[in-house]
Amino acid sequence: MSDDKIHESVIRAFDAAAATYDAASQVQREIARELVLRAARDFAGAPKKILDLGSGAGHVTDFALKQWPGAELTALDAAPKMLAALQAKFPGVKIIQADAAAPGAIGRYDLILSSMMAHWLPEPRQALARWRKLLSTGGRLHVALPVAGSLGEWRDACRDEHLADGLWAFPEPGFAAGLSENANTKAFIATYDDARKFLLGLKRTGARKSRPGHSPTSLTALRRMLARQKKPFRATFQVEFLALGAEPIPSS
Predict the structure, then answer these.
(1) What whole-number distance in Å separates Cα of residue 219 and Cα of residue 21?
(2) Distance between CA atoms of 243 and 239, rounded to whole angstroms?
(3) Spatial CB neighbours of 110, under 8 Å, sequence gap ≥ 6
(4) Strand, helix or coil at 217?
(5) What is the DSSP letter of 245?
């Protein structure tokens, strides 16, 4: 399957999860809150125009509206049902249905926020470089995404059972070195009743896409492995927070 087809299938998975996303995404909400708090500490003054890039159902939008109630906020996502869910909650927010991998000419923003989305893109580092071009002079880009080391509990369980680990491959820590002004990683832990509920949680948030080339495990082997896992089941997200400024203006 080509990169474009894989990317399209990721978008479809999130679109299908629009109705269940909020109830299943408590850790994503916690990460969104942290992202907005970090952006507020970094941004001098109050941004007039804010873009929530890869907004999903609107966790970042919610916290950004509370932090900067006077700002004009735009939410961009490729999944139409996610955008519909967001606009039902925040009718005053402008929405743009577009692919965050290459959003095109959508204006300039004082602050761009993106949480738990960039790792799904074919080239996350290239996406960051494109997003910087959407910043106004003095603008700031803040991004949160899981990096390698995330969901280690599940990966270890698969290894112990000699099963192929089909989870999406996350970027390596520091993948944006030389592009991001600073980057640091913080662990966020989600707790589920059992390992089966962990997998169900992935589906209900849209994060069910396996890494390209993965051959599905037989249901018998999977059920056997799930039954052996400790309860409750913990899943740790190693989240890298990045801060970038506007693209430098070339000297004449």
Answers:
(1) 25
(2) 13
(3) 43, 47, 48, 49, 50, 135, 136, 138, 139, 140
(4) coil
(5) E
Cis amide bond preceding 91, omega within 30:
no
Which helix (H) or strand (E) element contains residue 177? none
Task: Decide if 114 is inside a domain.
Answer: yes
Say which CATH number the domain at 165 has: 3.40.50.150
- Where is 88: in which H helix or E strand? helix 80-89
Cα–Cα dist 24/202, whole Å? 8
Q: Are 78 and 206 in contact (CB under 8 A)?
A: no
* Residue 7 within any structural domain of the chain: yes
- Looking at the structure of the chain, the number of domains it has is 1
Parent domain of 172: 3-245
Mean per-residue pLDDT for 96-113?
Answer: 95
Does residue 251 lie within any of the structural domains? Answer: no
Q: What strand order describes the sheet that includes 182-192?
A: 94-97, 72-77, 49-53, 109-115, 135-146, 233-245, 182-192
Tens digits of residue pLDDT in 6-32:
889 999 999 999 999 999 999 999 999
Q: What is the mean pLDDT of residues 229-245?
A: 96
Q: Average pLDDT over the chain, rounded to whole?
A: 93
Residue 121 in any domain: the answer is yes
Q: For the full predicted model, state whether its pTM sits above 0.70.
A: yes
